[in-house]
Write a structure and sequence with these properties.
Chain lengths: 191, 187
């Protein structure tokens, strides 16, 4: 059944290829309907959560041709916020993000491997702390449609796990805290 | 007991000024070392937390001593009768002393602005907390941290020059300036 739907979707996509243009979206950071959160184990006993307050990005998405989607997100590393000034100062310093030298982290997608209407695996280059790595992680479409103010919006959520030492961040936070989980929740406004 | 000289006279410092001076000196030197040491500690080092807690508590104590010496200076005499060196040296000493006060003041302020940038107060030995006055600029803790470090280095260098000048008085000029800061001179 799934296969049939996929084929139908594909057929539709191909037939309409000439007149369907992938829609461009801008991530709604202005209205803050988007968030980049992180969490990391603290001592192995609990979670420490934080976020990046400043970022920007855009994506292109067409429900008819989801495999042609792409996304680009730029993160201002200085804007890391774990709700504790002394810790944030440490995180911005050279033990961790070294934001004066690496003020920007970014993700630029390379491909979307569509799994079903709502799910895909995105693959792309993630740059953090001056190191770029090809990563892939699952994304889920939350929804899309008209907003009440005359616009059109689409939203996605994606999570991935990074090994800090892969990006040259080697400060010892303990054996349970070698990886950080990143969560990207974005709402885009169609341009 | 009545002949213990607490107040300054025209010719010498009294015990209050002397004690404030040396406690401040000890705090500045100890806090400078502690500050440099604690920022490089690993997360699992027992001093990772305690070092900063102590640094902040002593910072408030230092601020109290700084306020006390300013008040003491305003309400009392500054010894002027025991000057040494030439007029140029005396002018330089005045400028240096003013700078020492200025650096100490902004050292305290910049340190306070790091820890209070998120609205948290500064805990003093777990006894009480100096409340935050809020965040004035974005990422205040970063700028304040850099300023705090620069001021700390400036202060320690200037204090070193201050000490050398005192030795110069003692060993080269062979006057009573340094002795004056150890105990009150005879009236």
């Amino acid at each position: 059944m799934k296969k049939i739907i996929q084929t139908m979707v594909l057929a539709f996509a191909v037939s309409g290829a000439s007149n369907i243009q992938a829609a461009e979206y801008q991530i709604d950071t202005k209205g803050a309907h988007a968030a980049i959160n992180f969490k990391i184990k603290h001592l192995g006993y609990s979670w420490l959560a934080g976020r990046f307050n400043h970022f920007s990005g855009d994506f292109s998405y067409d429900a008819a041709k989801p495999e042609n989607s792409n996304i680009r997100v730029l993160i201002d590393t200085k804007s890391i916020d774990s709700n504790h000034a002394e810790r944030d100062k440490h995180l911005r310093g050279d033990d961790f993000l070294n934001v004066s030298q690496y003020p920007e982290a970014k993700f630029v997608s390379r491909s979307f491997e569509v799994q079903d209407k709502e799910h895909a695996i995105v693959k792309g280059d993630f740059t953090l702390h001056g190191v770029t790595k090809l990563i892939s992680f699952p994304v889920e479409k939350v929804g899309e449609g008209k907003d009440p103010w005359g616009g059109y919006r689409a939203g996605f959520v994606g999570t991935t796990q990074l090994k800090l030492s892969d990006y040259g961040i080697t400060y010892n936070l303990g054996p349970a805290s070698t990886h950080v989980e990143l969560e990207l929740m974005i709402e885009g406004i169609r341009l | 007991m009545t002949d213990i000289q607490l107040r300054n006279t025209v010719n010498s410092f009294g015990w209050v000024a002397i004690i404030i001076h040396w406690v401040s000196a000890a705090l500045v030197i100890f806090m400078f070392g502690l500050g440099l040491y604690m920022v490089d500690l690993g997360y699992y080092d027992p001093w990772y937390r305690d070092g900063l807690t102590l640094h902040k508590s002593l910072g408030v104590v230092f601020c109290a001593f700084l306020s006390a010496r300013l008040i003491w200076r305003l309400i009392g005499l500054v010894p002027t009768g025991a000057k040494g060196g030439g007029t140029v040296e005396q002018k330089m000493a005045k400028v240096a002393h003013f700078l020492l006060y200025l650096l100490m003041f902004f050292l305290v302020v910049s340190g306070y602005l790091i820890s209070t940038a998120d609205g948290r107060g500064v805990e003093v030995f777990g006894l009480f907390s100096v409340p935050s006055v809020g965040e004035f600029i974005e990422n205040q803790e970063d700028l304040s941290g850099e300023v705090h470090e620069i001021i700390a280095w400036s202060l320690i260098v200037l204090a070193g020059i201050h000490a050398l000048a005192a030795f110069k008085h003692h060993f080269v000029d062979r006057d009573k300036i340094l002795i004056n800061m150890l105990y009150p001179g005879k009236k």
